[in-house]
Design goal:
The complex is a heterodimer. Chain A is mainly alpha-helical. Chain A has 13 helices and four strands. Chain B is 71% helix and 2% strand. By secondary structure, chain B is mainly alpha-helical.
Chain lengths: 388, 331
């Protein structure tokens, strides 16, 4: 998360002088509850032109970024969903879990988790759902907002834009605040700083058609060397892939955390369920429906229970059909590799096609096993009357 | 001129001419008819747009008929279609007003005024409207606050809240009552309750340059002597419109109405830009074309999307025929 240190100091100084908070802040509080309180107080303050401050600059994009920090607070759901014990609840596992009633949308912890999203959304500017990524950046650069949630990739742009804005300022970087385990309401969901994907690099390759592969390889080695990686990282403000490379100061807050909890369910089975998810969730975040009637977490549970499983069944069956339809193509590839292996005259190529043949056979067998498993689950659910 | 049958001998004689139009026919066939025929063909398949293609007969159409979301999208398109037809009225009035301007110079000035906005890209217009609707700094809310319009709207909402306690016509009064709350800026694009209002308000004052110019071109064919005769008969401003101008531009109105209805069912670009591919929170402004896009690219059901395309085509055909039947221009 980025922030405007000068504005933060200015506003918290005023709040401290009014006795509303104990001290002025140089950096955002790291307790989410305290952060919410500070945002609420700032939202009541006005700038010199009489406009209210919008503490967190945000549109849908920034909300998604904040989701990454809060999204891991549903890690509790893994206990009931993760069937194969790989520490991930895939969308298939989530589907089966909901189908079998192991996870219910009206579960108290599920509701609390969704309520927390609503709490965050409340602190965003009015109409954030219709604002774009750039609208939020504008709010931040124009000193209307103190905080903006985005990744390291936006760091350099924000830094430059802030330095060149009408009222220049130095951009501060901080971790997104976390809910503390002693919080009376959400404490039971707080399992620490969430796990972050360490896949920060970007792939490079040398193609078959490359005229000078040695030179290309040399260049790639230079890029991934300590010195090269540090320089690249300095220019684009990206997390270095080389462990020995020194990170830029601004990137410290973005250093991936490899050991925390991560999201406990995956509700996107396919297009239909994704649509249901993406249409119903904003109603809760915004707290109202198309008639202007309030929508609370109970309404969300009801709507999801009514619509999600129906949509997920369609997606599940479609994936099953697609996998079955792809089998002939997989068989063709496998047959082709076998023929190539048998016809190869040089040992080197025979070995190459042998590996490809074994790989394609593995792929084929995995697909058939997966289809059989999915079919079994569907038949069982149909027999037990669990399908909506 | 009536077409005459061409004999083989004559065709052979004019072979070069036919060869000249051949590339044109080929390109039209390749880029216009082939995709349409291909779409109709694939609507009978389970097709992911790539490697999976399996004939399923009428299955896509059956699923479509049973999908409540699809019919809800058509309901939304119907509301938008009616609104868009009503939004044609300002363009007719503007065209008549410009036509009645006595000074040639001023008339030219107004014409140019209507041509200039046509240069602006529609994408730019959508983005301008997005900024216009912005809740905190947006022009619309600033105008409403500055002119006192917001207080009027808040009073209307307050009155509607009162009425809804006793009488709520199809939920209209409770919706209106919840629309403008005192001290809250309307979030035109961000709130599901405003989504439809924002979509209908879009393009205000709805004086589309193209339609005004079409009507003007037709109105210019009316001779001065007709107006002079009408004045001698004591015809009022409205009488001239009702009995001279409207019957003459009815053919153009019909064409524009067909285009508007087709646009309401087919057009999706600005809805997607303003509300996203899900049609806003709760899918409030989901229209059939948006539904089709999601089926095609989000769900990878290209066969189903082709089926939706076929249904849309048939719907447009029916509405166009209805339109032709309802609006009969004067001969």
């Amino acid at each position: 998360m980025y922030f405007n240190p000068e504005l933060l100091k200015e506003l918290t100084r005023k709040l401290a002088a009014e006795g509303k908070i104990e001290r002025e802040f140089n950096a955002p509080p790291q307790d989410l509850r305290e952060f919410f309180k500070l945002c609420d107080l700032m939202a009541q303050m006005k700038d010199e032109r009489g406009r209210v401050y919008l503490p967190i600059a945000g549109g849908t994009y920034q909300f998604q970024i904040m989701n990454n920090s809060i999204g891991a607070m549903n890690a509790f759901a893994q206990e009931s969903l993760d069937e194969n014990m790989d520490c991930w609840a895939s969308n298939d596992e989530t589907f089966v879990g909901v189908l079998k009633g192991r996870m219910k949308f009206d579960d108290k912890r599920v509701q609390k988790f969704m309520q927390l999203y609503r709490e965050v959304a409340k602190r965003l500017p009015p109409g954030w759902n219709g604002l774009s990524r750039d609208d939020a950046v504008m709010q931040f650069l124009q000193w209307r907002s103190v905080f903006i949630a985005t990744g390291s990739w936006d760091g350099m742009t924000l830094k430059k834009q802030a330095e060149e804005s009408v009222r220049p300022f130095k951009v501060g970087v901080s971790h997104f605040p976390l809910m503390q385990p002693n919080d009376p309401e959400y404490g039971e969901l707080a399992w620490g700083r969430p796990y972050e994907n360490p896949g920060v690099g970007f792939p490079f390759a040398i193609t078959k058609q490359c005229k000078y592969p040695d030179v290309a390889l040399d260049f790639l080695r230079f890029l991934s060397s300590v010195k090269g990686n540090e320089e690249l990282n300095r220019i684009i403000l990206w997390i270095p892939v080389n462990k020995a490379a020194q990170k830029a100061e601004e990137l410290k807050a973005f250093e991936p955390n490899y050991s925390g909890p991560h999201g406990g369910w995956s509700l996107n089975m396919g297009g239909k369920s994704q649509t249901v998810n993406e249409q119903i969730n904003p109603l809760l975040y915004l707290g109202e429906d198309s008639k202007g009637k309030p929508v609370n977490v109970d309404d969300w549970s009801r709507l999801m229970s009514e619509q999600w499983l129906k949509a997920a069944v369609i997606d599940y069956e479609q994936r099953d059909e697609t996998m079955r339809d792809q089998l002939p193509a997989k068989e063709s590839v496998s047959g082709l590799m076998r023929a190539k292996m048998m016809n190869a005259t040089e040992d080197q190529w025979r070995q190459y096609y042998r590996r490809r043949y074994i790989g394609s056979m593995g792929d084929l067998l995995n697909a058939t096993r997966e289809i059989a498993r999915r079919q079994r689950q569907l038949i069982e659910a149909r027999e037990k009357g669990e399908l909506p | 001129v009536k077409g005459q049958p061409v004999s083989l001998r004559a065709a052979r004689y004019h072979l070069q001419i036919y060869l000249f139009i051949l590339p044109c026919i080929l390109f039209i066939g390749l880029f216009m008819y082939y995709p349409v025929i291909n779409g109709v063909y694939h609507s009978f398949f389970t097709w992911n747009g790539g490697d999976v293609e399996r004939p399923v007969g009428m299955e896509n159409y059956k699923r479509l008929a049973a999908d409540p979301d699809f019919w809800r999208a058509f309901g939304n398109a119907a509301i938008l279609g009616i609104a868009n037809i009503l939004k044609m009225i300002p363009a007719i009035i503007a065209a008549v007003c410009v036509h009645r301007v006595k000074s040639e110079r001023m008339r030219f000035f107004y014409r140019v005024g209507f041509v200039v906005p046509m240069i602006v890209s529609s994408m730019v217009l959508v983005l301008l409207w997005k900024a216009f609707y912005e809740p905190t700094n947006g022009v619309l809310n600033s105008i409403l606050r500055g002119t006192g319009g917001m207080s009027v709207l808040e009073s209307i909402s307050s009155a509607a809240r009162g009425i809804s306690e006793y009488f709520d016509f199809l939920g209209f009064f409770s919706w209106l009552g919840n629309l403008f709350i005192e001290g809250q800026n309307p979030t035109w694009l961000g709130s599901p309750k405003f989504a439809f209002v924002a979509l209908i308000l879009w393009g205000f004052p709805w004086v589309g340059s193209f339609s005004v110019l079409v009507y003007l071109a037709c109105l210019d064919s009316i001779g001065k002597e007709i107006y002079e005769a009408a004045e001698v008969d004591g015809a009022s401003w409205f009488d001239k419109f009702r009995h001279i101008e409207l019957p003459l531009i009815l053919r153009q109105v019909r064409v524009m109405a067909i285009l508007v209805v087709m646009g309401s069912i087919n057009d999706v670009g600005h809805i997607m830009l303003l509300f996203g591919i899900n049609g806003g929170a709760g899918g409030v402004v989901q229209v059939p074309a948006l539904f089709m896009l999601r089926e095609a690219f989000q769900s990878q059901r290209m066969g189903m999307a082709c089926g939706i395309g076929v249904v849309l085509f048939l719907m447009i055909l029916i509405v166009t025929k209805l339109n032709e039947w309802l609006i009969k221009p004067a001969d």
